Amino acid sequence: MIKNLAVIGAGQMGAGIALVCAVNGYEVTLNDIDQKFIDSGLERNKKWLDRQVSKERMTQQEADEIWNRMTGEVDLQKAVSEKDMVIEAIIENLDIKKDVWTKIGNYAPEHAIFGSNTSSLSITEMAVASGRPEKFLGTHFFNPPVIMKIIEFIKGYSTSQETLETAIEFGKSLGMKTVIAAEAPGFIVNRILIPMLNEAYFALQEGVATKEDIDLAVKMGLNHPMGPLTLSDFIGLDTILYIAEYLHKELGEDKYRPCPLLRKMVRAGKLGRKTGEGFYKYD
Ligand SMILES: NC(=O)c1ccc[n+]([C@@H]2O[C@H](COP(=O)([O-])OP(=O)(O)OC[C@H]3O[C@@H](n4cnc5c(N)ncnc54)[C@H](O)[C@@H]3O)[C@@H](O)[C@H]2O)c1
User: Which domain covers residue 251, as residue numbers?
Assistant: First the structure.
């Protein structure tokens, strides 16, 4: 049974996962490579709690209790010690993730289970790097976790049934629906989503329509909550490029080739909302 956890990476997803866990009663320690990233992740969570209080969706006391369940710790060893679960939500790069998982495997208590929030990468490779592949699985939350009530759980080659059952119970305790995917590049959702987003970039690059019309057509015509370019700015273009490159490499077909416009925008640092500009500009 999970009572407390560490979330590694305090970016959009890590801070969001910490928040949804704290809202549902878990003690969470948030870790990142620099204190400033932890501070800004916690600050975003504080703003969200303040908004809930001002909109009378929770009392000040409830918000304070949730806030007090979230702490930051820049030392990875301290962050994962005495934790029942560790969820990693760092940059979508397999080599960096494997390196961090090797360290976590050395530091975390024996009983802890491990989840990676990767959008596409090999669970089995990270599981082996962690040194406890049977206790490892993919825990793919959606953005923002406090709103998106589903988790994709991904089984690696050696993930045990016990680990999967513990994770499903944990997911349910967060008020989430859960689905189970076998390990395959992109799992369920990103296998379908990334080629669609990539096609929208090709359409824009080829002048098929303006960005506004591409978004409006998909939003209204397909009844999606937002268009593909707006969604891309939410996700982060660097993250999408990592996933697209991985799908292309692993599945080996031209249809997964990342659009040159996506590459160009990532090189220009136009990563979406998190940098203030992607397909659109943000204050
Ligand atoms: N953005 C999305 O919509 C979304 C959705 C589901 C899953 N994901 C996945 O979640 C993960 C994180 O994505 P994000 O959007 O939060 O990215 P992000 O860029 O907002 O945050 C990544 C964080 O990881 C930190 N980091 C990098 N190396 C680290 C290390 N060695 N130790 C600790 N922290 C480190 C960075 O400093 C940064 O704060 C990725 O694997 C991504 O594919 C993203």
Answer: 190-275
